[in-house]
Amino acid sequence: MSLEYRVALMRALLAALPTAMLSAFTLIAQTDDWRIIVSAVGVAFWTPFVLRFGVEGTWDARRNRQDPPPPSAPPARTAGDIVRRID
Q1: First CA to last CA across the chain, in angstroms?
Q2: Taking a C-beta distance cutoff of 8 angstroms, is the pair 5, 57 a contact?
Q3: What percent of the chain has pLDDT over 90?
Q4: Which residues contact 57 (CB under 8 A, 6 or more apart)?
Q5: How far is CA 64 from the centre of its chain?
Q6: Crossing angle, helix 3-30 and helix 34-49, to 10 degrees?
Q7: Rounded to 5 degrees, what angle do the CA atoms 59, 62, 65 make?
């Protein structure tokens, strides 16, 4: 699994789990029908999960394959790279 997909997986879980839990707690307080609760929690979990992991992960992976991101730090300089003019 590439770095883009791992990042997208973590984002997907961080978005989907709280959404599903909030949906579950809300529906448990309102109804006793477990079919409704399970189906609503499933939709609440899978929608952000598929969008974040599937769509965003694929988008980022393709973008980085076509145009790699610039390095985060400048390349290291050595003493031979530095030229000092002495007058």
Answers
A1: 56
A2: yes
A3: 44
A4: 4, 5, 7, 8, 9, 12
A5: 15
A6: 160
A7: 150
Residue 8 has what pLDDT? 87
Residue the block writes with tokens 């790699």:
68
Q: Which two tokens stand for residue 32?
A: 């006793």
Question: In a 3-state reduction of DSSP, which class is residue 81?
Answer: coil
Alpha helix (H) residue ranges in 1-87:
3-30, 34-49, 57-66
Domains of the chain, by residue range, sit at: 3-66
pLDDT digits (tens, 9 = 90+) for 48-77: 999 888 888 888 878 777 766 566 656 555
Token code pair at residue 57: 């992960």
Burial class, 12, CB count within 10 angstroms (exposed 0-12 / middle 13-18 / buried 19+): buried
Q: At 30, which amino acid appears? A: Q
